[in-house]
Design a protein that fits this description.
By secondary structure, the protein is mostly helical. 75% of the residues lie in helices and 0% in strands. The chain contains four helices and no strands. It has helices at 2-11, 14-42, 52-73, 77-101. The longest helix has 29 residues, at 14-42. The radius of gyration is 16 Å and the shape is elongated. The two termini are 28 Å apart.
């Protein structure tokens, strides 16, 4: 996936690459702001029902989402790489939280509706 993205960036029109990276950066900043809000309101463990490691992962996204967004804005390939890792691990963590811990559907969890 990452190799394909790198290939696309070098062969797509510059405006398309800038637009895609800009949209991704905005979405990452929105995610970071949600995690920062959780940190400010509830500390490192905002979800009592989730294990400590999962809470720490979600809290760490306040930093990693911001870092990926900044790297994307600066036009760095590492921003794309980090964003891909974040998306993949976030999907896995949310799937585990919804189906492995909560045994419910993802949309029913308040943490996933914000």
């Amino acid at each position: 996936m990452i190799g394909w993205m790198h290939h696309w960036m070098h062969h797509a029109p510059r405006w398309a690459v800038i637009s895609a990276c800009g949209i991704a950066a905005v979405l990452l900043f929105i995610g970071a702001s949600a995690h920062v809000t959780d940190l400010l309101r509830h500390g490192l463990h905002p979800y009592d029902w989730a294990p400590r490691w999962l809470n720490l992962y979600w809290s760490s996204l306040a930093l990693f989402d911001t870092l990926a967004a900044v790297l994307l804005v600066r036009g760095k390939r590492r921003g794309i790489d980090l964003a891909c890792v974040i998306v993949a691990t976030y999907l896995a963590a949310n799937w585990y939280a919804a189906y492995g811990i909560q045994d419910s559907n993802l949309a029913a969890q308040p943490a996933f509706n914000g």
